[in-house]
Design goal:
heterotrimer; A: 752 residues; alpha+beta; 7-stranded mixed β-sheet; 5-stranded mixed β-sheet; 30 strands; 29% helix; globular; B: 160 residues; DNA polymerase, domain 1; 34% helix
């Protein structure tokens, strides 16, 4: 059995030798390099744009402005007709700009320097418009309207959901609690920047695109809309991705390089974003302002929760509408309340667009929710864990959008984590300036069927010499999903792991898959591959039964052979069976698997943090984090732990030090020098704990984990800071200066 | 300008412009694309190579400076189809995820082991402090480097 | 890549000086500051004059009680040099606190001073050690105290046609300490840094020199704070007073790294840390 065991990853050799091909490693003899001219204004019309001098620069082969591209609106995050409620508010290029860094024009030239010089020669006449940078200002009357063609009051999307009567619930409560919680902009900072290469064949009317993307089929879908081309004429190939984290979950520059290639007579055109462009012109995490109001009974039961949220969507809608809806589910899935109401708005501002980012709104929602819960527990004198256990959901509960909760081991996560963390011992032995905190999380594994009818396809072929070729569209972006899928197939067919060859499918395979996001890659990819392997196995077993003169149900597979149970000396090799099918019956052995989940196995977990606060400087030193996850089945335990650790590192960054600083719509720290990522010197002690599902085939139940280690870190840190030095901070990041100011205000700095 | 550089034991003679970085020349002219470009400001370390025994960010070295120098990149490590102990350790300890930081990480580790064959955990952390990893938390990377330090000495000598 | 520039690599200091008389000709050593600024469009030299080929600029010599450090000595060499670790420890600590190994293998002491950032980590230790900078130019050589080397952010005392030759540091038998405060780890630019050189006799502070960086337009010699401490017994109360004086003496700005107010708070913290450390050591 390979599932549950660690093996070397199938992409290991390529990655440790530097042979893996990332986007910027691709070249062609006649390659052109593209650069994008970006707006210096946060909001402006383009009145005139003169590219004549730039066109005359030797080496410039194509220039695009809004006049040269189809005027077809699209949404870069669009995945299918179920997203028809998304505003289609973007064009490949437009005569209006809406944030500093927005696209104005694009140039393709013989080398990047010439392209850069050409940008400087493009003359643009702007008419600056009033701009709005604050979401609370953006919804006021009289605010500048950023997308009047698709929205009013700058609202991208509105969402209200709930049950019961919260007002009555407040009346029934013994205590009421209120709080406002704010979260900030975080940047993805994948070490590999965005980029794509496009090659347009005018004769055939066909386009080939290479992209460092998490969602090749999605890119194809959006390209077909934006370029008005049939899907079959577009081929999108995903290169090895150097980190995605949600930042490569939509279309970026692919339409531009496609149009440039078309204009340049079909020469391939490559664009690679600079690090500065990564910060200023891709996506950020949605900043959020939450207002929570709860009613609680003396015995700790929550009677009512009311949540109001305002998300800052930035200049384009991207995935904001869906993200807002999913945001409500984080509040609904963790706890039982008799009454609940969520009112959410996501709005346009003239800032860099917000988009999908590891956690997909969960870190923001859980910072508000779990901080609020910890505050309630504190005020009422409950142990935070006891308070949770009184109110958490359990298997069998029905929740909106998801339906019935199955296989929830949240309670076990809390108890196992508390033990490993020595929670009760640390509560008793309070040390000066040291604090502990706990927070819970829930998250999705693939979008719930009511949000996206999810699907994934794969084929498994037993080759004529008993090998296995697995064709899977699963987009490997670093977590080892493709290795997991190979294990599933190896186990299903009973062949050695090394005999399974994975072909990473591009869109021309037509094996549709939505891509790697929402922690769906393992769950969807493994189940699709398993179904395909099962079908291929069926063909093999049928022939083997013939060859061994036995019944189908008496056969089993192992080590590349098919045996008769109870008479293992009667066996035949996979190769012999395959040859018989290929050369005698004249058909290949191919199984096709198409997986459509009925249930969305939610992932759950608990995070425990121990830290020390330095009263002189406000610096928080995290001493230990225990991160517990109910994740179904760990197909590759070490990879899973690596994912948890990486997500926890993100959480530490989100909580304490990563912040995109903006002033009047300009990003003030668009460099890795001033945006502080976790380095080797910053890593606290992290203990990842895996809690597996107790069902018969847990690997079919494999839940997402990649995003989850991050989600509950910030509220656990906030709670631990309060435990350590008695100050409440309801705004991330909990930076040293913020903690220091709070300490000063309370009068508990060094002069105590 | 003409430069003669020795890369991974092979001599190259090239014509380069002053405004080309060593990184760009390695990747675009010599097609040694294992060394990666992550920031071009000396912060991420994905472009780390070894020049005359020292780990440097090749994005901040001019190609013309490489004249007469001995340069090692990730491509120079695996010999005769066999992985270098550092590469083997990275595989065994799951010390990579997306793999983009990996070549730079390994070169920083190699430079460390050349200088200090028996590093402590603290030494390793300092040696890779200039290499950013966004996927993981460095734990497995540190483990892999410490593991490799146990059997790397004889290999290093034969590489230099 | 950067915008086009010419590249020259003279063999003598004389040639280098003559070349740098010209407009747009910049000295190029480690490049870790200059090349980054060029990428950001903040500098646009016509020609880079690479001085790394000039002999006699990378020495570390300690004789007759004077340490001479050539301007091309890298931060990594400073960090790991045995003689500097033993005799001038704070220089090694300061050098080792800058950036990553990759940066320190290229960055030079000359570059750190000539880049003239108020946050230059080598400046406070050199200032409190009474170091001097020997400058060579077309019109001859001159020596300035390192404390006078910085004129304003990004501007050093160097005139066109001048090159920093070496830094000399007299021997020290005092209690010296260097501390650097950053948000996360030492690869970052300091929010504030401090060097203290104190002559102690029992608990008496007979003399003290204090310099801080990143809290004023140039590295700052903290004369008022020194006044508070000189010829006095070091007590907790005195350290508190010195900390308060220091936090008022600095002229910090608010930037993306920290507010001026926070820098004042950190200054108090660093003064206390520095003196508590010195007192612990001397007992």
């Amino acid at each position: 059995m390979y599932v549950g065991r660690d093996t070397p990853r199938i992409d290991a050799i390529d990655k440790v030798t530097g042979r893996a091909v990332y986007l910027d490693d691709i070249t062609f003899p006649d390659l052109l390099y593209a650069k994008i001219l970006r707006s210096p204004h946060p909001h402006a019309y383009i009145l005139k744009i003169d590219t004549s001098e730039a066109e005359r620069l030797p080496g410039v082969k194509a220039i695009l402005t809004f006049k040269d591209v189809p005027r077809i609106p699209f949404n870069t995050s669009y995945r299918g007709p179920f997203h028809s409620y998304y505003p289609f508010d973007e064009y490949i290029l437009e005569d209006k700009v809406r944030f500093i860094g927005d696209k104005v024009a694009a140039v393709a030239a013989e080398d990047p320097l010439i392209a850069e010089e050409a940008l400087k020669l493009i003359k643009v006449e702007y008419q600056p418009l009033p701009a709005v940078f604050d979401p609370e200002e953006a919804i006021k009357d009289g605010a500048p309207q950023i997308h009047p063609e698709v929205s009013s009051r700058n609202v991208i999307s509105e969402w209200v959901i709930g049950w019961g009567d919260v007002t009555q619930g407040f009346r029934d409560a013994d205590y009421m609690f209120e709080g406002e919680y704010k979260t900030h902009r975080q940047a993805h900072c994948a070490i590999e920047t965005h980029g794509s290469v496009a090659k347009y064949d005018a004769n055939a009317g066909e386009l080939t695109v290479w992209s460092t993307t998490q969602v090749p089929f999605n890119v194809r879908r959006v390209l077909s809309i934006a370029l008005n081309m049939p899907v079959a004429k577009i081929r999108v190939i995903k290169t090895c991705v150097g980190g995605g984290f949600g930042g490569k979950d939509e279309v970026f520059d692919e339409p531009i390089v496609a149009m440039l290639s078309k204009k340049a007579g079909g020469r391939p055109v490559k664009i690679c974003y600079s690090r500065e462009e990564e910060f200023t012109a891709t996506r950020v995490r949605h900043p959020a302002i939450y207002q929570l109001k709860s009613g609680v009974k003396k015995d700790g039961t929550i009677t009512s929760l009311y949540v109001k949220v305002l998300l800052d969507g930035g200049a384009y809608a991207t995935a904001s509408p869906q993200l807002l809806r999913v945001n409500s589910t984080y509040f609904m899935n963790l706890y039982r309340y008799l009454n609940f109401r969520f009112e959410g708005l996501v709005v346009y501002t003239n800032q860099v667009p917000s988009g999908a980012m590891r956690g997909y709104g969960a870190p923001q929602a859980h910072f508000a929710l779990e901080t609020h819960m910890n505050e309630i527990a504190g005020e009422l004198g409950f142990d935070p864990i006891e308070f949770r256990l009184k109110n958490i959901r359990r298997s069998g509960d029905e929740v909106p959008i998801f339906g019935e909760i199955v296989g929830c081991r949240l309670e076990d996560c809390i108890k196992i984590g508390a033990e490993k963390f020595e929670w009760y011992k640390l509560r008793r032995e309070k040390e000066k300036d040291i604090g502990i905190g706990v927070a819970l999380h829930s998250h999705v594994t693939s979008p719930p069927p009511r949000i996206i009818p999810d699907q994934s396809t794969a084929t498994v072929c037993v080759t004529e010499d008993g090998g296995v070729t697995l064709i899977s569209p699963i987009a490997e972006i670093g977590s080892g999903s493709t290795t997991a899928i190979v294990k599933i197939v190896a186990d299903e067919l009973g062949v050695p792991f090394e005999r399974v060859k994975l072909v990473e499918a591009d869109t021309s395979s037509e094996l549709f898959d939505y891509g790697t996001f929402a922690d769906r890659a393992n769950f969807m990819g493994c189940n699709a591959a398993r179904l395909a392997a099962k079908e291929a196995k069926q063909l093999i077993l049928q022939k083997a039964a013939e060859m061994l003169d036995s019944r189908l149900e008496d056969l089993e597979t192992a080590n590349g052979r098919i045996y008769v149970k109870h008479s293992p000396e009667r066996s035949v090799s996979l190769e012999e069976v395959a040859k018989a099918i290929y050369f005698k019956t004249g058909r290949p052995v191919i199984g096709v698997g198409c997986f459509k989940p009925e249930v969305n196995p939610m992932a759950w977990g608990a995070t425990f943090v121990k830290l020390k606060v330095d009263r002189h400087t406000g610096k928080v030193n995290i001493l230990k984090i225990v991160s517990v996850h109910d994740l179904g089945k760990a197909i590759s335990p070490e990879e899973v732990k690596g994912q948890i650790r990486g997500a926890v590192a993100w959480g530490v960054g989100f909580s304490l030090r990563e912040e995109v600083i903006t002033r009047d719509g300009r990003i003030m720290n668009p460099t890795l020098r001033d945006y502080k990522l976790c380095r080797s010197l910053d890593v606290p002690e992290i203990e990842p704990v895996i809690v597996e599902a107790d069902v018969e085939r847990p690997e079919l139940f494999v839940k997402g984990v990649g995003q989850n280690g991050l989600i509950a870190i910030a509220p656990a840190v906030a709670a631990a800071i309060f435990d350590a030095v008695g100050i409440r901070i309801r705004e991330t990041p909990l930076s040293p200066e913020k903690v220091w100011r709070a300490l000063k205000e309370k009068g508990v700095t060094e002069e105590e | 300008m003409k430069v003669k550089m020795n890369v991974n034991g092979r001599d190259y003679e090239l014509l380069v412009e002053p405004n080309w970085s060593l990184l760009d020349v390695l990747r675009d002219k010599l097609r040694l694309t294992g060394t990666k470009k992550g920031c071009e400001e000396g912060e991420c370390g994905a472009c780390t190579v070894i020049v005359d025994g020292k780990a440097v960010n090749s994005c901040l070295v001019l190609a013309v400076e490489a004249d007469g120098k001995k340069i090692f990149t990730i491509e120079g490590l695996a010999g005769n189809g066999e992985l270098h102990p550092l590469q083997r350790a990275f595989v065994e300890h799951h010390a990579f995820q997306c793999g983009f930081c990996t070549p730079g990480m390994i070169m920083s580790a190699l430079a460390l082991l050349n200088e200090k064959p028996n590093p402590t955990e603290e030494d390793v952390k300092k040696a890779i402090a200039g290499n950013l990893c966004r996927c993981a938390d460095y734990t497995n990377i540190i483990k892999a480097i410490l593991e490799a330090s146990k059997d790397v000495r004889h290999i290093i000598r034969s590489q230099s | 890549m950067w915008r086009k520039f010419d590249y020259l690599h003279p063999n003598t200091l004389d040639e280098a000086c003559k070349l740098c008389l010209q407009e747009g000709y910049r000295i190029f050593a480690g490049g870790t500051d200059l090349l980054v600024k060029m990428k950001q469009g903040l500098e646009n030299p016509r020609c880079l004059v690479d001085i790394k080929g000039i002999k006699g600029l990378d020495h570390i010599v300690y004789e007759e009680g004077v340490l001479r450090i050539g301007s091309l000595v890298t931060l990594r060499t400073l960090e790991t040099s045995k003689i500097i670790q033993e005799k001038f420890g704070i220089l090694s600590v300061a050098a080792g606190s800058m950036g990553s190994v990759q940066i320190r293998n290229r960055g030079t002491i000359g570059g750190n001073l000539c880049n003239a950032s108020p946050a230059a980590d080598l400046a406070p230790p050199l200032i409190v050690l009474g170091a001097k900078a020997k400058i060579v130019g077309c019109k001859g050589a001159r020596t300035v105290d390192v404390k006078d080397f910085f004129i304003e952010p990004g501007v050093s005392t160097l005139q066109p046609g001048e090159v920093l030759f070496e830094v000399t540091v007299p021997e020290t038998k005092r209690e010296n300490i260097f501390l650097k405060y950053t948000v996360s780890n030492l690869t970052e630019i300091a929010i504030a840094n401090i060097a203290v050189s104190a002559e102690l006799e029992n608990e008496m502070c007979k003399d003290v020199k204090i310099a801080m960086g990143s809290v004023a337009p140039t590295p700052l010699r903290m004369k008022k704070t020194e006044e508070v401490l000189r010829d006095r017994r070091i007590t907790d109360e005195l350290i508190r007073r010195a900390a308060q004086t220091a936090s008022n003496e600095i002229q910090p700005i608010s930037d993306i790294r920290a507010s001026a107010e926070y820098r004042r708070g950190i200054t108090k913290f660093l003064i206390k840390q520095a003196f508590e450390s010195i007192m612990r050591r001397s007992r």
